[in-house]
Task: structure prediction
Amino acid sequence: MECLFCKISKNEIPSETVYEDADVKIFKDIHPKAPVHLLVVPKVHIQSIAHLEADHSDTITKLIYTAKKVAEELGLKGYKLVFNVGREGGQVIDHLHLHLLGGWRGGEERKINV
Ligand code: AMP
Ligand code: ZN
Result:
């Protein structure tokens, strides 16, 4: 099945990409909830964290490690990493993705819903 994030990860739909390799694409969220709001997306289609299987563990490790590397490269000292899982968990796009949020300056709101 070709969902929106499958198409973005194959460059069939444009995105503001900040990082890409064979397994992962990181692009700017179209409706940012923070000064920096990126989506860390595996190129393989997995519906959600609730649909993970044992052989997906490398994929999850790579998502988190790549998010950490990109956050460092962007100079983010602190940030949030969020998985929404299922409709009740706020997930709208049924292709696994990790929200990377940061870039706040002193005094700004850090309690957010994504
Ligand atoms: P979630 O609610 O966890 O499924 O998050 C989906 C996110 O995808 C939302 O924050 C949307 O703003 C974002 N989004 C939807 N369509 C696009 C798109 N074409 N490019 C970038 N981000 C998108
Ligand atoms: Zn997909």
Q: What stands out?
A: The radius of gyration is 14 Å. Residues 58 and 89 are 24 Å apart (CA to CA).
